[in-house]
Amino acid sequence: MNTPGTIDRPLTHDPKKQAPMKPSTSEPAGSATPDFSHTDATGSRQMNRTREMQLIPEALARAHMRERLRDAERERRAVRLATAVRMQRRAERASMRARRALAMAVMQ
Questions:
Q1: How many CB atoms lie within 10 A of CB 12?
Q2: Which of 9, 28, 67, 107 has minimal Cβ neighbours within 10 Å of its Cβ?
């Protein structure tokens, strides 16, 4: 690979005397992504950090609302359970009254 006229050892180092580069057919023209400098990356991270900082109150509000919804659902379940227990007791009392009435009717 050390033959003169290759990439490793060009015939001349003068760009004007070298053969022009041919565009690649596998990659469309203008498809190369621009290089990002370190300062751009830092600025981008800083911008993302700023955006995250601005979204923190929104995230806290969402978390607070989720917690309140869970509490409300828990409260509704507790109320339904209490109502069910109350209705069961009432049904048991009605059943006992009916059994007593039937026993009284049979005894007479």
A1: 10
A2: 107
pTM (2 d.p.): 0.45
What is the rounded distance in angstroms from the CA atom of residue 77 to the CA atom of residue 79?
A: 5
Contacts of 8 (CB under 8 A, 6+ apart): 1, 2
Q: How far is CA 48 from CA 33, 35, 41, 60, 81, in A?
A: 21, 19, 10, 18, 48
pLDDT tens-digit map of 34-62:
555 555 666 666 777 787 888 888 999 99
The answer for residues whose C-beta is within 8 angstroms of residue 12's C-beta and 6 or more apart is 18
CA–CA separation, 45 and 51 (whole Å): 10
